[in-house]
Write a structure and sequence with these properties.
Elements lengths: L7 E8 L5 E3 L2 H11 L2 E6 L6 E5 H13 L5 H13 L1 E4 L5 E3 L2 H6 L5 E8 L2 E5 H18 L16
Antiparallel strand pairs: 1-7, 2-6, 3-4, 3-5, 4-8, 7-8
């Protein structure tokens, strides 16, 4: 029975083999099997050099929203072309592997080592090197933005961790 509610969280390193296959780490694999029987959609992120993996049911909601947008608007058409155009349906094999298409691997600069990042309803796939550089930059930027009086004007004001 399909259960469409699962939250992906945490970081997990992984490796792409010589054929471009990724063995999905067990905790993500188990959740994907539970929620969508291993049927997923992989597409590019239009903001960062990473890939986005969605369980099929979640993707279908996103796809419907994208297709309902007025495609006479040039910006909307660009987003539709990029996100929908790069979307690839994948199914995990019996070993929990998915084949990452070359075009998508190139977008994310993935060669061998990956970092998988749970982001609630999706999993981001990052080149390990790109992830580390971006993570460092985000930490530095966040520290600078949240220091002193800047925190009072931030949407993060009042967030206690």
């Amino acid at each position: 029975m399909e259960n469409s509610t699962v939250t992906f969280r945490g970081l997990q390193s992984a490796t792409v083999d010589d054929k471009g296959r990724l063995a999905v780490p067990k905790r993500f694999r188990d959740a994907l099997q539970q929620v969508c029987q291993g049927q997923v959609v992989l597409t590019i992120d239009i903001h960062d050099a990473c890939l986005l993996m969605y369980p099929m049911a979640v993707w279908q909601e996103i796809e419907a929203k994208l297709m309902a947008m007025p495609n006479l608007d040039p910006a909307t058409r660009r987003v539709q072309r990029l996100i929908l155009g790069h979307a690839v349906e994948l199914e995990m094999d019996a070993s929990g592997r998915v084949l990452l298409p070359e075009l998508l691997r190139a977008h994310a600069q993935v060669e061998k080592e990956l970092m998988l990042v749970g982001q609630g309803n999706k999993i981001e796939f990052w080149s390990a090197d790109v992830w580390q550089a971006q993570r460092t930059a985000w930490i530095e930027t966040t520290r600078a933005e949240l220091s002193g009086d800047a925190i009072a004007a931030s949407p993060l004001a009042g967030l206690s961790l």
